[in-house]
Amino acid sequence: MHISLTDRLDEYVRGKVSSGLYNNASEVIREALRQKIATEETEEAQLQRLRDAIEPSWQEANEGKFADYSLEKSLARLGTAS
């Protein structure tokens, strides 16, 4: 596999290697990709929790039970009520 980096990214990678934190550029790139994957997985889990918290309100709205809607109730489902 061959990748091209911008000058800024190339300098960043070279700096990490020259600092002694990494033995070579491949290690820097692998670590960056591992962190990106972990971030995406965390974000997807957060989105799923939000979807799960919102779903009961959608069901209530579809069933015409919107009369007892309250912002506090919805926020409590999301775990953000103060």
Summarize the structure.
By secondary structure, the chain is an all-alpha fold. The protein is built from 3 helices and no strands.
Question: Whole-number average pLDDT?
Answer: 86
Q: Specify the biggest β-sheet.
A: none
Distance between the termini: 51 Å
- Assign a percent range to the helix content: over 70%
Secondary structure tally, helices: 3
Domain count? 1
Low-confidence stretches: none
The helix/strand order is HHH
Q: Into which percentage range does the β-strand content fall?
A: under 5%
Q: Tell me, what's the shape?
A: rod-shaped
Number of strands: 0
Would you kindly provide a written description of the structure presented here, covering whatever features stand out?
This protein has one domain (7-78). It is built from 3 helices and no strands. It is mainly α and 82 residues long. The N and C termini lie far apart (51 Å). It is 71% helix and 0% strand.
SSE topology sketch:
Elements: H1 7-18, H2 25-62, H3 71-78
Question: Which properties best describe this structure?
Answer:
82 residues, mainly alpha, 3 helices, 0% strand
